[in-house]
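Fig. S4 source data, part A: sequence.
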Amino acid sequence: MPVRLFSGARSSVISFNQLHRTDHHRVKQQLICSLDNQVLERSDIVKGYEYRKDEYVIIDPEEIKKIEPRTAKTMEILEFVKASEVDPVYFESSYYMVPDEAGRRPYALLTKALEESEYVAIAKLTMHNREYTVFLRPHKGGMMLHTMYYAEEVREVESFGAPEVEIKEAEIKVAHQLIEALAGDWDPEKYHDTFQENLKKLIEAKLEGGEVQAVEQPRKLAPVVDLMAALKESLAQTKKPAGSEKVAEMPAERQPKTRRGRA
């Protein structure tokens, strides 16, 4: 079944160039040999794997082609599983899968069969020097392909899980009321990156010679002393007059201070 893949989503963010602080001209990044400080061209560079400190085995692109698995040419369907059994934590990137002319009939057949079942296809595909396990699912009459992380790539966090705390039935009831008050239909068009929108406004203001206006910051939330009172306060915030934004602030319980680092 010959198919083509098109990226299903991409990040859209404002990018900045690096400039020299004094004259505002762009800086250049050069490739410099650590041994003799010689400036290198791209054509001077080869790939090497460090097997011991400062010792490398050189790998040629043609050698990589020789060891490509058969999934480099053909996607292999391994099995069919129930969609509900696949944890979204394994999903990496999304692609639209479009059939070539010769693949239209088997593509349509597989799509229709999956639409009428609770199953999705698990397959293997090689691209970008990596063999992926992929998840195939029907979508709007076509087929979506999602690359997936392998089990050993999914991190386990020791402290993750249900906290050992006692929750009262009345608290659960109010929490359910809060969920119902904020319940709605999924519509991705409702959600926007306000930080990127503020960056655009900042740039426009600077170009026009205006002043940068600080956005209103949320009030500092006090540590929770009475969880029930905090839940009721959050619920009351959702019952504002029509036209006001429906957002509930959930104060966090007091936690011991911890150092934060980069992940």
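Fig. S4 source data, part B ends here. Strands lie at 3-7, 31-32, 39-40, 47-52, 55-59, 76-82, 91-99, 119-127, 130-139, 142-148.
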